Protein: CFEM domain-containing protein
Organism: Colletotrichum gloeosporioides
Amino acid sequence: MKLSQWGLDDWTLILGYLFTLSFAVSKFYGYELGIGRDVWSLSHDEINRFMRVFFAFEIIYTVSIGTLKASILFFYLRVFNLVSPTFTMILWCTQAFNILNCVAFTIANLNQCKPFWFAWEGWDGRHPGYCVNLTAMLVSHGAINIALDVWMLVLPVTQVLWLNLRKRQKLEILCMFGLGIIITIVSAIRLRVLLNFRNFTDPTYDAFWLHMWSYVELSVAESHEWKCFHVNGVIASTDTKW
């Protein structure tokens, strides 16, 4: 049995897994530092450590979700590379937007406060500095991700309908790609949590729900990618013409 050569979608998927693993580590470490507990039950040092973990969590999530989307788009490029130059260009433009979105919000997260350490020490009002509106930035990133999810759902559907496959095979492939709807639903729930987060009164307790839905979103995205590999097998095993 000859194994197929790894492509960019495979490598970015592995990279996405590594980032998601680091997110999981920050998740469980964060629980030890106070996520899910009332803020007034924590000491000053514990809150500082919690804020450091939350700062890392924002960056790791942004890179993780961007990498997983990149893997799916590279997969589209491999599967639909013979469709048309126009569709290939659309995929590359979508990929470029995804990468720029990931880089832009990663840089924004890293520079959310001046000075840098004010992100985790400024909460007590004892240090000079300022931060951007973090909730607005996170909500903007979440909304763009949902729009990109919907766009990435539409792209393969427009092409599968033209595949030279039996109706049952087309339906199977559409159902596999359609699992991306679950990602969009989870992303919408996470966005709702973010919108409520701006009115939080207990940051360490409220962060639990944001952390949980972020992890669910990353896990569902990984599961969707594995389903896409099955779609590749169905298409590759068929005498497909466009």
